[in-house]
Write a structure and sequence with these properties.
Layout (H helix, E strand, L loop, with lengths): L1 E10 L2 E11 L4 E5 L6 H8 L7 E6 L2 E2 L4 H6 L1 E4 L11 H11 L4 H14 L15 H12 L6 E5 L7 H16 L3 E5 L3 H7 L2 E6 L2 E7 L3 E3 L3 E8 L6 H7 L3 E6 L2 E7 L2 H13 L4 E6 L4 H14 L19
Helix pairs in contact: 3-4, 3-5, 6-7
Bound molecules: adenosine-5'-triphosphate.
Adenosine-5'-triphosphate binds next to β2 and α1.
Length: 325
């Protein structure tokens, strides 16, 4: 869906992206994380075709984003970390303005405005002025503007920053909804616990390079094998034997808790739960294992730093830098 190939971006005297390469699958939500200054915003700007790399390419399917940016923008939505809204315009006018900017034909514009408002839960706010909205609703309006042309891909830079817990929860539901409707999302954030709730992939950056890129769905092997966690109401000495007898693998038991690997979709997971209960186990909880993103992220950064940045520090920009628009 998106391919980023050997991207290099230089600010005056400073290399902010240094050979960044990765690919993003369709219908996924990629959490883009990294310490302050890692290069996340620069990467998103390059992916959106707003910053011209010194080297490398960004492809959206077959479209070279920097060669034919207008074609790319027709299929892409972008929300900057410092977005602006026209405070005096109503929600409907803000969306209509963006629909015009995206050259949506007038016959389809009203429907596009309604649809975007509906997707972001703003249908009852269409007549309200943007400047009167709460921060959470302004954020939703900004996202609605970014998707008014129904892009295949949306890039969001720190969409949760400054939102209260309730608004962040609502935002997570919105992002999940967009993915379920078929969009591909890349979301940068520092709030790892929430990213874990809705992201399907993790992309970790440090010093302008990719440290890690992996799926977050607990998949441990091709063919859909996943790691599960089971907690019993009380420990059972035969837990390991029971689990092995019902055909799950890599069983690890600790007191009333067990971790194991099993294959299959949601129906197979339901059947597995039924068999655990039929085997007489007092199941208190059973779910796909969480990856504990925060710990994994901190360990990754620590290991990378302990290796003394096996990667050499980013080089200073060798030539005149590309301008940031
Ligand atoms: N206009 C600029 N001129 C020079 N250097 C810049 C400019 N913008 C960013 N940088 C530098 O490039 C590096 C990457 O910045 P970027 O904003 O992409 O990082 P980030 O990962 O998004 O950071 P944060 O999490 O703080 O938003 C930083 O070291 C930053 O200081």
């Amino acid at each position: 869906m998106i391919r980023v190939e050997d991207l290099v971006f230089d600010y005056p005297g400073f290399r902010a992206l240094d050979g960044v390469t990765f690919a993003i699958e369709p219908h996924s939500i990629t959490a883009l994380v990294g310490p302050n200054g890692a290069g996340k915003t620069t990467l998103l700007n390059c992916m959106a075709g707003l910053a011209l790399p010194a080297h490398g390419h960004v492809y959206l399917d077959a479209i070279d984003v920097h060669r034919v940016p207008r074609q790319a923008h027709a299929r892409m939505g972008y929300l900057s970390d410092f977005f602006g809204l026209y405070a005096e315009l109503t929600v409907a006018r803000c969306l209509d303005y963006r629909a015009r900017a995206q050259a949506i034909p007038s016959a389809r514009r009203a429907a596009a405005v309604q649809r975007a408002a509906e997707r972001l839960g703003l249908s009852d706010r269409l007549k309200q002025r943007a400047g009167e909205l709460s921060r959470g609703l302004r954020q939703r309006l900004a996202i609605a503007q970014a998707i008014v042309h129904e892009p295949a891909v949306i890039l969001l830079d720190e969409p949760a920053s400054g939102l209260d817990p309730e608004a962040r929860f609502g935002l997570a539901a919105v992002l999940r909804g967009l993915k379920d409707e078929g969009m591909t999302l890349v979301v940068s954030s520092h709030i790892l616990a929430e990213l874990e709730d809705y992201s399907t992939h993790l992309l970790v950056m440090e010093q302008g390079r990719i440290l890690e890129h992996r799926a977050l769905d607990g998949t441990v092997a091709p063919g859909g094998a996943r790691r599960f966690e089971l907690t019993l109401a009380e420990p059972r000495s035969d837990l390991s034997a029971v689990l092995t007898s019902i055909g799950v693998g890599e069983v690890l038991v600790e007191g009333p808790m067990a971790r194991f690997v099993a294959t299959g979709d949601a129906a197979a997971q339901a059947a597995l739960l039924r068999r655990l209960i039929e085997a007489g186990l007092p199941v208190a909880s059973f779910a796909a294992a969480k990856s504990d993103l925060q710990d994994a992220y901190l360990t990754l950064l620590k290991d990378n730093r302990a290796r003394g940045h096996a990667l050499p520090p980013p080089a200073a920009a060798p030539t005149a830098p590309a301008a940031r628009p």
